[in-house]
Amino acid sequence: MTTEPVILIENLQMSYGSHQVLKGISLKVRQGEVIGYIGPNGAGKSTTVKILLGLTEGYSGSVKVLGTDIAGGGVDYKRRIGYVPELADLYDSLTAREYLTFIAELYGIEPERADRKAQRLMELLGVREVYDSRIASYSKGMKQKVLLISSLLHNPDILFLDEPLSGLDANSVMVVKELLAQLALQGKTVFYSSHIMDVVEKVSSRIVLLYDGRIAADGSFEELRAMGKDTSLEGIFNELTGYHDHKETAETIAQAVREE
Ligand SMILES: Nc1ncnc2c1ncn2[C@@H]1O[C@H](COP(=O)(O)OP(=O)(O)OP(=O)(O)O)[C@@H](O)[C@H]1O
After folding, report:
1. Ligand 1 pocket: which of 45, 50, 197, 210 to mutate (most atoms <8 Å of CB)?
2. Does the keyword Nucleotide-binding apply (predicted)?
3. What ipTM score was computed for the predicted complex, to two decimals?
């Protein structure tokens, strides 16, 4: 394994109009780390990931992925990255075979090889029987599995995942959680953004909490736990983001529902 960071972010700032979303983020991610990237809704997690993927421009600061300054617009580093977006635009009118071989082709994988690998991964994830059905007919979890496969076909070095377990059944969740650990053992780096705290707690070797445009905590779960009073990541999250009134908020909402 190399010791150079695979992701190096220095003083990253990003605004949409007058709204400053990222207020100076610095982060070094090393090969083989599984980063749990967490934060409240709207904190800027997806924005960070989209910048790292070269999908969002207009930021300031420096961002290097796999040694490449992404501001240079190079595409080589993108070939070594896999991405499972939060809201996916799957081509519903295609079958998984058509979709996955098409995606693989974009990565320069020869169609027959891609087809073999896609079928194998569909089989391992228990969805081989719908390989030739239109994606439009799939359940949410089946679509999620196709997305996961599409991010892995080209054997990427870094995997960016935004709520990757969304819609997956309990057995599939266990498989994917274990898969992430196995991929990290192979030396792949995983950048995992999710709101499901008990999963983040279990799969991440390091947790980065984004709050108010800045990194509010960065460390292993044990290190984060040592910082506060709470013992669960959910509790630590509430503590670090200064949120204590979930019960009152829920009561007020329930009351508002009854109002005329
Ligand atoms: N294209 C855009 N134009 C304007 N504002 C945007 C755009 N994309 C994101 N934002 C704003 O930036 C902020 C951060 O959004 P982002 O999607 O990065 O948050 P997030 O941490 O991923 O949230 P969530 O947990 O809800 O997915 C939000 O206030 C959002 O409204």
Report:
1. 45
2. yes
3. 0.96
What distance in Å separates the CA atoms of residue 237 and residue 211, rounded to the nearest whole number?
Answer: 10
First to last CA, the chain: 63
With a 6 Å cutoff on the Cβ, whether 21 touches ligand 1 is: yes
With a 6 Å cutoff on the Cβ, whether 38 touches ligand 1 is no
Structure token digits, residue 85 = 């977006």
Question: Is the minimum distance from the CB of 16 to ligand 1 under 6 angstroms?
Answer: yes
Nearest to 152 by CA among 84, 74, 86: 84
Q: What domains can be seen in the chain, in order of their start residue?
A: 5-88+158-168+178-257 (3.40.50.300)
pTM attached to this predicted model: 0.90
Q: Is 47 in the pocket of ligand 1 (CB under 6 A)?
A: yes
Residue type, 6: V
Q: What is the pLDDT along the chain (260 residues), one digit of tens a residue?
A: 557 899 999 999 999 999 999 999 999 999 999 999 999 999 999 999 999 998 899 999 999 999 999 998 778 888 899 998 876 777 889 999 999 999 999 888 999 999 999 999 999 999 999 999 999 999 989 999 999 999 999 999 999 999 888 888 888 899 999 999 999 999 999 999 988 888 899 899 999 999 999 999 999 999 988 877 777 888 888 888 877 788 888 888 888 898 88
160 and 84 Cβ atoms separated by less than 8 Å: yes
Q: Whose CA is nearest to atom 26 of ligand 1?
A: 41
Separation of 121 CA from ligand 1 center, angstroms? Answer: 32
